[in-house]
Amino acid sequence: MLSQVSENKLLNPVFTDIFDPEGSEIYLKPADCYVTAGKPVNFYTVVEAARRRGEVALGYKRAALALQAEESYGVRVKSQEISPGDFYTRG
Predict the structure, then answer these.
(1) What is the tens place of the pLDDT at every residue in 42-91?
(2) How far apart are CA 30 and CA 41, in angstroms?
(3) pTM, two decimal places
């Protein structure tokens, strides 16, 4: 974090908010809160849907891989395609 701030001072308010106890929080929410279930979408669609709600999409969780440790429990950060029923995180 310190090296990033030393390279770009504009990041300091972002890190201050992230690490502030009263700052942003990260939640897992069903993808169908943001996109139509049953239709393939790319991650850019999810990002735009989250933006319209005043949120930030960070990634998603593939429901089919949720119990597989070797697959990081299905967590994907900023990928291109999601499937119906997948979940993603936002801050």
Answers:
(1) 888 988 999 999 888 888 888 889 899 999 888 888 755 666 666 655 55
(2) 14
(3) 0.57
CA torsion through residues 11, 17, 19, 25, sign: negative
Up-side HSE of residue 53: CA atoms within 13 Å toward CB? 15
Contact 44, 78 (CB under 8 A): no
d(CA 75, CA 82): 11
Residue appearing with tokens 């390279």: 7
pLDDT single digits (tens) 2-40: 777 777 888 788 778 778 888 677 788 888 889 988 888
Residue 14, H or E segment: helix 12-19
Ordered DSSP codes for 37-69: TTS-EEHHHHHHHHHHTT--B-EEE-GGGTT-G
* Helix/strand number for the chain, H first, E second: 3, 6
